[in-house]
Amino acid sequence: MTDTNDNQKLTIIEDVACTLCGCVCDDLRIGVRDNNIQSLENTCQLAEDWLWKQNERLASVCKVGSDDSTLEDAVAKSFELIQQSKNPLIYGLSSSSTPGQRAACHLADRIGAVIDTSASTCHAPSIMAVQRLGESTSSLGEIKNRSDLVIFWGSNPVQSHPRHLERYSNDPNGEFLDAQDRDRYLIVVDTVRTETAELADLFIQIEPDSDFEVLWALRSLVQGKQPVGEIIGGVPNDVLTDLAGRMINCQHGAIFFGLGLASGTLPHLNVEALLSLATDLHQHTRFVVRRMRRYGDVAGADSVLCWQTGYPFSVNLNRDYPRYNPGEYSAGDMLARHEPDLAILIGSDGLQKLPAAAINWLANIPTIALLHEDSELPFEPTVKIPVATYGVNLPGTAYRMDETPIPLRAYLETDLPSDEEVLKQLIELVMTK
Ligand code: SF4
Questions:
Q1: Tens digit of pLDDT for each residue in 354-400?
Q2: Do 157 and 275 fall within a single domain?
Q3: What is the pLDDT of residues 41-66, one digit of tens each?
Q4: Are residues 255 and 351 in the same domain?
Q5: Nearest to 218 by CA among 164, 156, 289, 140
Q6: Which of 164, 177, 186, 233 has CB atoms 3.0–4.6 Å from 181's, for a disulfide?
Q7: Of the candidates 259, 255, 339, 243, which has an alpha carbon nearest to the alpha carbon of residue 295?
C-alpha cells in the first residue's frame, strides 16, 4: 500500500522487504521524498545502516581498468574477456534476485563456465547433509505459530539476524500455542555465551568441536539409552537428560542452526547428526530443523541453480551436461588452485569468506564485476559495472531462509541497469558472434 501526504510530498511505502539477511523481513515502512529515503520503520540497526546508504549515489560509472567507460564499452570489453577465456568462473548471486540468477545460469551454460554461489563459503556442508539425509522442515510462519520450544545451535541471531526473535522465533504469540505456552521456551547451545544466550531461558555451553558428541548423546537419550560418560562435550549428563526430556515433551520443536555447527573439522557430519536427532524425535513429537542463512537471497540462488542445472551450487557447465562436485568446483578451491582464467562476479557477498589464496588469484586474472553501488572489492576488477539493487531500485523475488519466496518492491529510481540486463547483453553477444 502506498500512502502520500501531499503537504510534505512524502510517500510511505508499506510492506517493503529487506534483503540484507536471510530473514527477508517484509514489513518495513519506508518514507521516500525526491527519490531519497526520509524515514524508516520496522528495521533493525543492520538494515538501517544499509538503507540510509542507498541515498548516496556512489559509483554509477562503469570502469574498464581505471578509466571511466560507457556501459556499451564495458559490455564489449567483458565479451572480449569471455572470448579469450578457456575456464571461466561465475560466482556470487546471493545479493541478486531470481531474474539475475537465471540469466547468470544461462550465461554459464552458453560459455561453459563453472557457476558457484556464496553458499559454498557458508552452508555448503548443510546442503550436502540435507542431500544425504533429507530434512524435517517447515516455514518460519509454522514455527512462529506452533513451536513451544525453540533452540538456537551455534547461532547468534541477535547479532546476525536481529529481527528473527521478534518476528518468528520468540516474541510472537503463536496462533496454535496453548495460552500458557505463549511464552515459548528458548534454549541456546553454543561454545560461548552470546547475546542470544543472554535472552534464553536456558543456555548450554559446549566445548568447541564437540557438537557431534553432544548430538549423538542426545540421540541416545531420545531413544531411551544412556550415553557413556558423566560429562559429554563439556556438558553434564543430567543437563543433556533434561534437554532430551524437554525435546521429547514439547508440542512442536524447532532447531535453528548456524555456522557454529556447520563449520569446523567435519561440518557435514555435525549437521547430519542434528538432522538424525530430529528424525529420532519424530517417535515422540514434531520437530523441525532450519538453517540460519546469512545472505539475503542465498536461498534463492540455491533454488534457481537447482531449477536450471539440477544442483544448488558448485556446478560445472563446460560439457553439454552439468556436473556437481563441491570442492572440485567450489569457487574458493578452484581459485586457490589457480584454475579459472576469468571470474565474473555478481554481487560481492561471500568474497570476504574466500581464502586469501583465492582472493590473490582473483587479483591476478581478468575479472568482470557486476556490483551494487555500495559494494567494495579487495582488488581492482578489470571491468566494473554498477548495477541496480533488487528490492530497492528493482522489483524481483528473494527467497527467505525457509525457502519462502518474498516479492520485492522498488522505491528508489536509478539509471543503472539490472544485472539481468547486463548478462542478457553478454548472452546475446555470445550467441550472435
Ligand atoms: S533482520 Fe535482516 S532482513 Fe530483517 S530488517 Fe534486519 S537485516 Fe533486514
A1: 999 999 999 999 999 999 877 788 899 999 999 999 999 999 999 99
A2: yes
A3: 999 999 999 999 998 866 579 999 99
A4: no
A5: 289
A6: 177
A7: 259
Domain range holding 202? 124-291
CA 44–ligand 1 middle distance (angstroms) = 6
Residues 90 and 38 reside in one and the same domain: no
Atom number, ligand 1, closest to the C-alpha of residue 296: 3
Residues 400 and 22 sit within 8 Å (Cβ to Cβ): yes
Q: Where are the beta strands (DSSP E) in 264-395?
A: 286-291, 315-316, 323-324, 342-346, 367-371, 383-386
48 and 85 belong to one structural domain: no
> In the structure, what pLDDT confidence band is assigned to residue 181 with cuts at 50, 70 and 90?
low
Q: Which of 243, 260, 291 is the last residue of a domain?
A: 291
| Spatial CB neighbours of 41, under 8 Å, sequence gap ≥ 6 | 28, 29, 30
Please indicate whether residue 388, judged by its CB atom, sits closer than 6 Å to ligand 1: no
Residue nearest to atom 3 of ligand 1 (CA): 24
Q: How far apart are CA 376 and CA 43, in angstroms?
A: 23
Q: How far apart are CA 257 and CA 383, in angstroms?
A: 38
Any idea what the CATH number is for the domain that residue 85 is in? 3.40.50.740
Q: Is 104 helix (H, G, I), strand (E, B) or coil?
A: helix
**Ligand 1 atom at minimum distance from 163 CA:** 1
209 grid coordinates: 568441536
C-alpha cell at position 45 = 540497526
Q: Please indicate, yes or no, whether residues 152 and 244 belong to a single structural domain of this protein.
A: yes
pLDDT tens digits, 6-37: 556 899 999 999 999 999 999 999 999 999 99
